[in-house]
Specification:
The complex is a heterodimer. By secondary structure, chain A is α/β, with parallel strands linked by helices. Chain A has helices at 21-38, 44-51, 53-72, 84-109, 175-184, and strands at 125-136, 142-146, 152-157, 161-172, 187-192, 195-200, 212-221, 225-229, 235-238, 244-250, 253-258, 262-268, 271-277, 281-287, 289-295, 299-305, 309-314, 318-322, 325-329, 332-338, 342-346, 352-358, 360-366, 370-376, 379-383, 391-395, 400-404, 408-414, 419-421, 427-431, 434-441, 450-455, 460-464. In chain A, strand 20 and strand 21 (342-346) form a beta hairpin. In chain A, helix 2 (44-51) packs across helix 4 (84-109). The N and C termini of chain A lie far apart (76 Å). Chain B is built from 3 helices and no strands. Chain B is elongated. Chain B is mainly alpha-helical. The chains are: A alpha/beta, B mainly alpha.
Chain lengths: 475, 69
Amino acid sequence: MNPTGNPYQGSRPFRHRASLIGPLILILIGCAFLVSNLLPNLPVWQFAADYWPFLLVGWGAIRSVEILIAYSQGRPLPHFGISGGEWMLVIFLTVFGSMLFAGHRWGERFPNANIARRGLQIFGEGFDFPIEAQIQAGAAPKLVIDDFSGDVRIVAADGESIQARGHSTVRAFNDTDARRFHDESPLELKREGDHFLLRVRRGAGVPNLVRLSADLDVTVPRGTSIEGRGRTGDVDITGIAGDVDINSDNAGVRINNVGGRVRIETRRSDMLHVSGAKGDVELRGAGEDIELQDIAGEVKIAGFYRGDLSFRALAKPLHLENRGTDLRVDKLDGSIKMDRGDFEAENIHSPMTLHTGSTDVKVKGSSGIMDIEVARGDIEMSPAAGPLSNWKVRTGAGDVELSLPPGFEMLARTGRGEIDSDFAELHSNSSGGNAEVHGTVAGGTGKAPVIDVSTGRGNIRIQRAGSGTLQRQSQ
Amino acid sequence: MNPNMPPSNLFRALRGPVLLMTLGGILALDHFTSYNFGDTWPLLLIVVGVMTLAEHLVGRPPASPYSGG
């Protein structure tokens, strides 16, 4: 045995140990295609379009570990950790991933474009067939829409029957095949236990590759409850008095004037719109835009919604947990709009808590207690006319601008920056880049509310409300 | 730790993987936060600079105990 303890060292020609990267990438790509083929409703390519940069991070991490292990074991190190060929693969991966990401975004922006839909519809053509069904259902039935693709518009009407009318579309190479597939896949509307079932039942002889869809206008009794399960396509529901429960892979959902509870869970959605709901509203899953207004019940949202979120006139508490953002408002008289980097609130007259990441925040005309904490971003706040409430405002890095009437106790700090104030009553300290302003500005009645403001890096401006131009008093 | 292999070789070998991780991290920031690639790409230059600097610093021969004081 040689002094290193390795019986083969010196007696075996040098050979690099094969990297794990190549096989792991092959396994990942294989798994992605396999899942895409076997579970076509899972948004695999959407996931890939979003998360592919972590492949580069993982690649670099695994190669680093391999190099460190080789170093610790005394094996020869590669001259460069990533070879020229591997960099070419990285470039290819980056270009391909960026195109996938851009295409995905483009598809979200233009959802009706063909490329945005699953599976390019380039073979064959669509053949339309009229479809119709009707059933007596009573005054308050439960309607289950089960697993089909296409758009459904549901409207409540007087009466006790459910009527579905529209057309089905079969994609095929010729009229004969299309008619056969259509005949084998009828529209079903039937009673099943305690509910009524509406679906297009794919015939046993219709290949899975043949795309079947149905666009339906459905009229239901006013007391109807709706449950939609595992379908793709848009849902539009108006005027029913019962609950709405949608669980979908990919659906745009519009719900107007419903009397019951609304629950929507989506894996992907370009728009969720609910207005005029008398019950609680619960949204879960992933999607893009959310629009809620005139909601009488509580609103709970938990998921991964990446588009514009808009809330207006919510009578009961709103709790949003979305992509690192935690928002709670007891009651929303005004409006809140938020997107990827901005948050705007107006006329909030009840307590509001906002904890989020990189976001610019604007709060206008609000009188409620505020607790705002952002990791990074500018904050601009101006209260409603009338007495102030306690405010706690934090940003890790960013400017803060406050427009305040007299009558408050101020504590403002910046770790690196300046504080400007219109109020001579406030006292300032500054040293080594830090600045702090504190004091009480008389005015108003009762105990002065505490305005507690802090930024890790940035300037703070405290402006007198209604002063028009800011008269700066450098602290 | 291999006493026969200078640490500068290690830093040189790690330069590519670390750069790759940085690139992936910057692209992930672009996808999931408000920081876009146009803002954060200088990090790539900084990482290359830091790795090269580290390679040079650890690559210096150790001072002899008999040279000077």
